[in-house]
Amino acid sequence: MVIIDLHTHYPMHLLAREPMPPSRFRNRKTALLDWVRGPVLRIANRLWNYPGAGSAPAVTNDSLARSSVRAAVSVLYAPFDEVDVGLPYGAPPASRYMDGLLRQLDLVEASVTGQTESVIARNPAELDAAVQGGRVALVHAVEGGFHLGASPREVAANVASLARRGVAYITLAHLFWRQVATNTPALPFLPDRVYRWIFPQPDVGLTELGRAAVAAMVRNGVLVDVTHMSRRAFDETIAILDALDPHERVPVIASHAACDFGGLAYNLADDQVVAVARRGGVVGLIASRHYMARGLGPARSFADSVNILCRHIDHVYALTGEHDTVAIGSDLDGFIKPTLPGLETPAGYDAVEAALTERYGAAVARRICQDNAWRVLGSWSGSA
């Protein structure tokens, strides 16, 4: 069985290492910042991110090779640029964020150079060739529209540039308001109401930058990821896609999400799941215990995890009448600790596939673990 994971933070362990050689930096200030950020991120990973005692990351070339995951979307994300302590809360994006994102992309590609197990897939054909050849395919994606530029023109140009580098999707909203798209609370240690008090947002959905990003993504064949979006941003995104693509050829995805069983704003309401299904998209089920188990009881064992996964799968089936809208989007190494028991590493999904086969049969298990994600990624234009 081939498993496709639509959302992993593969670059996280690379960012926590010693910084790239000084010759790669544009200036001394950038180099100095990265020297400081690396140790900070290493400590944060150990405490709040990596599984178990936190000594090792979940998503690496080796861990993927030891699992049945043969395609992993590798999410590019610069946490220190999102919070950017040098700017006030809610400040607009800075143009320089794109430079950091491209350096991270280069770092990911360098990490698989010479590897026999892993390869970068920049389009669906390369993805297919890698998987058929038994190698792990890493696919670039971006989390956070704040990376894309400070003006609509910059956003349009940068989305086109990322498309040429093989980026499959962009998650426009993320953890904090940065004047692109309003977001839902997604800090598990803060109740939603407390988050909204500390981090207020205007009564908008997409800004001019956000609308420019959606249009550029459609134009360049980059998939739109609605995860993290506020309800208003979600609705406006769907409306723009319906206007630009009335025949619904471009899917929309929620790459790492969950159904709403417990009143968390991050999780998808029923009509949002239906909207994703209507556009031929998928909901990648996240491995976070906080979002998946809310309202469904305790998650103390792998058996509990399977039951929780199946509750979400069954709910999507009840809403859509089919098993074409669910996929895997673990968010491993994305600060989702504690994860659902047994799903702390990619290898845990081997047992998930077996459990889903027992529960639903091989055909449905294959759709959830592979085919649905494969179909959606087939709609990504990719680099030439």
Low-confidence stretches: 20-26
Number of helices: 15
Order of helices and strands: EHHHEHHEHEHEHHEHEHEHHEHH
N- to C-terminal distance: 29 Å
CATH homologous superfamily - what is it?
A: Metal-dependent hydrolases
Query: What is the subunit organization of this protein?
Result: single chain
* CATH C-level class: Alpha Beta
Rounded radius of gyration (Å): 19 Å
What's the short version?
This protein is α/β, with parallel strands linked by helices. It contains 15 helices and nine strands.
Question: What is the secondary structure topology, with strand pairs?
Answer:
Elements: E1 3-8, H1 11-15, H2 28-48, H3 61-65, E2 69-76, H4 79-83, H5 97-112, E3 118-120, H6 124-132, E4 136-143, H7 152-164, E5 169-171, H8 192-198, H9 208-220, E6 223-225, H10 231-244, E7 252-257, H11 270-278, E8 283-285, H12 289-292, H13 302-320, E9 326-328, H14 348-360, H15 362-377
Parallel strand pairs: 1-2, 2-4, 3-4, 4-5, 5-6, 6-7, 7-8, 8-9
Helix pairs in contact: 7-9, 9-10, 14-15
